[in-house]
Amino acid sequence: MMNYLPFWLLVFVRLASFFLAAPVWRDRQIPPQFKIGFAFFVTVMVAGTVEPAHIPDLDSVYLLLVLKETVVGISLGMLTAFLLYAIQLAGSFVDLQSGLAMSTLFNPQTGVQEPITGRFYYAMAMLFFLSVDGHHILLKGAVASFQWIPAELWLPAGAAGSMAALSISITKNMFWIAVLIASPVMGTIFMVDIALGMLSKMVPQMNLFVVGIPIKLLVHYIVLFITMPVFFFVMGKLIRTMTHSIESIFKILGT
Which compartment or compartments is the protein found in (predicted)? Predict the structure, then answer.
C-alpha cells in the first residue's frame, strides 16, 4: 500500500488546490484546516476508484508533477469561480447607473469591498447554487478529472494555448451574463434619466439632484425585485455554462 503513496499525494495536491480556488470552498469563512481535511477524505475515496497507469518515483521529476497537479486544481477551481464574478459585476453595473456606486459593503467571504446590489446578487446566487446542488456538480467534476487527466501523466502538447482560448471565452461569457442580469434595471433607470432630463427642460426651477436620486433609488429596488425570476433563470444558464466549462477543461487537459 505504501507504494501508492506518491500517487495519492498527487491526488491530494490537485484536490487541495481545487478546494482553495473553487466556489463555496474558497470563502474565507471556511477554515483552511477544514479545506485540507476535506481534501484528504476525498482523496481517500478517490484513491480507491482510480487505478494509475504507473506509480511515479519520488525524484526531481516528481516535483514537476506536483506543480502540474497544482496548476490543474487551481485551473478547475478558478475558471468555474470566474463565472460567479459575473454576479458581482452585474451589481456594479446596476449601482453605477442608480447612483449607489460609492456605497459599498465589506464581504468577509472574499475580503474586498463590494457594491450593495452586487452583494445582494451574490448572496442570492450562492443560495440558488447550493439549492440546486451546484457544489455537488463541482465535486463530481473534481473527482471525474482523474479519469480525463491522470495524475501520474503529463499534460498534452498545446494545452497552454487551448487553455488561454478557453479563458478568453469564459471572460466573454462573464461579461455577457453580467449585462444580461443588469440590463432590466439599467434600461429602466436609463429611461428614468431621459424622463428627468425632459422634465428639467420643462421645469428649469426644479432641483433634479434632490428629486432625481430618490426616484432612481425607488425605481432601482422596484425593478430589482420584479426581475428576480429573470435573475434565477440566468443563474440556471450560468450553472450550465459552468458545467460546459468543466467539460471543456477536461477535453483540453485530457491525455
Answer: Cell membrane; Bacterial flagellum basal body
Burial of 65 (0-12, 13-18, 19+ CB in 10 A): buried
- For the entire predicted model, the pTM comes to 0.77
- DSSP H or E run through 107: strand 104-107
CB atoms under 10 Å from CB of 89, counted, come to: 20
Contact 144, 50 (CB under 8 A): no
Q: 26 — phi, psi (to 5°)?
A: -80, -10
C-alpha cell at 208: 433634479
Task: List all residues 6 or more positions away from 90 whose beta carbon is below 8 Å from its beta carbon.
Answer: 117, 118, 121, 177, 178, 179, 180, 181, 182
d(CA 28, CA 13): 20
107 pLDDT above the threshold of 70 = no
What 3-state DSSP class applies to 102?
Answer: coil
In this prediction, residue 131 carries a pLDDT of 86
Sequence ranges of the domains in the chain? 74-253
Given this model, what pLDDT does residue 7 score?
A: 82
CA dihedral sign of residues 25, 30, 35, 38: negative
Listed in sequence order, the residues at least 6 apart from 11 whose beta carbon sits closer than 8 Å to its beta carbon are: 43, 46, 47, 50, 69, 146, 151
Q: Which of 184, 167, 87, 183 is nearest to 127 (CA)?
A: 87
